[in-house]
Amino acid sequence: MSTNYTNTNQEKTRILFLKRLMYRLRLKAMTPGSLVDFNLGEKFLFGRVDRFFVPIEMREPLKAPLFAGFKSFRQTSGTQSSAQALSFVVDAFEDMSREFQKCVNKGLISADDPFLSNLNVYKAHVDHKSLYIDYLDTYLETLKGLFDKDGIKVRDFKDFLVYLMPYLEKIIKTVPFTKPAYIKSRRCPILCSGLAIEIADLDPINDDEKITKFIESKNWGFYVNACNSYGFMIDEFVPWRIVCDIDAPGMLKRSAKYFSPTTNSVIKNNYIHAHNQYFENFGASLLRLYNMVKHPEFYIYEQCNGSTIKKSVNPLSYTTEEFEKEFDEIYFLRLYCKIRFLEEESQFSTNEQDKLINDCVHAVGYAGIRKSLIIFERILNKTFDYRGSASYINKQMQAIKDDLPND
């Protein structure tokens, strides 16, 4: 084990704390003010929420004419063949990589650094949809196990929800259920944003390697300055991970090739709100879980005139048409809002929650389900104070009309 820095988690908590503190002090002494702590405050959500903290996801290229699209990195000896990121991010990285190569050729920086001479891409964009599908599969199987363990038998969908909600209340703040909450959680990596690149394949737990292979590198200062110049932020705790700063002049210069070079344009043309597409399948996900937990038949025992009678119960089965007819989008809007309140660290009282849900339901009638959802998400994510009236929601809806992504 390293004397000064961590290279494993298998040490006492106090020792780990002191060693990680030593790493941070050394890092700040070597690189004052140049690195970003992506575990701190708003930076933790970078690339996964809009400026109102509403969760966002990468849009489908064919549905956005100005979408910058994905682009593959040029092939080098260490670059993964499948590595991709948003086009302007790749453009900036490729320009920076050529700058490294020029300086190596001129002898201005060391040519024998394993990571900071010839830049290779080991990881880039990760598909959040695939990650969430796998996550949800595991989640539903776990919930099914809880139903089975507790011997719960459900008669119909409403009966199923009565049992489901208490389970969710216990775990949902640390183990989110909906995709919007998943995207905001630590379970969704920043690589899903299409803005992040990793130029090494080292262990992020090993601070000893971070110091010896990056911070003490002869090319470290050049690397830091180059990232600043080309519009990349360096992750303080994973120094081989660089993240596009969409506000930086060096990055806006390259995004201008694809659309108007402003932060809003980058967000509007490359991302959509995560709740819209998710809400379309929200009811289907719950129906899937219902079908997983319901038994084809079970028995109950009732007393009748002093005798015990055994009765067979066949839980309801739903076709898609029957399910959508009985449970419409308003029904699921209410349920979605209740679950989202459970997932977020909201300060709303029960009465305030009920009133906000009722107001959003009322807004569906004159604004539609999508605008009602975005208003709910903005209020939920504390972008402004809720005054408790439908008229207030209407004013906010008008105020943000021009600010909505083209979902």
Task: Give me a quick take on this structure.
This protein is an alpha+beta fold and 407 residues long.
Assign an overall shape: elongated
CATH topology of the domain at 33-126 and 189-261: Muramoyl-pentapeptide Carboxypeptidase, domain 2
Number of helices: 15
Low-confidence stretches: 62-66, 383-393
Describe this structure in words.
The chain is α+β, with helices and mostly antiparallel strands. Among the domains are: 33-126 and 189-261, 2-Layer Sandwich (Muramoyl-pentapeptide Carboxypeptidase, domain 2), CATH 3.30.1380; 346-407. 48% of the residues lie in helices and 10% in strands. It has 15 helices and ten strands. It has helices at 13-30, 87-105, 128-149, 157-171, 179-184, 207-215, 220-230, 249-255, 263-270, 274-293, 320-326, 329-343, 350-367, 369-380, 390-399, and strands at residues 35-36, 56-58, 70-72, 84-86, 196-198, 232-235, 241-244, 271-273, 298-304, 307-313. The protein has a four-stranded mixed beta sheet. A hairpin with a 2-residue loop joins strand 9 (298-304) and strand 10 (307-313). Helix 2 packs across helix 8 (249-255) and helix 12 runs antiparallel to helix 13 (350-367). It starts with 12 loop residues before the first helix and ends in an 8-residue tail after the last helix. Residues 62-66 and 383-393 have low confidence and may be disordered.
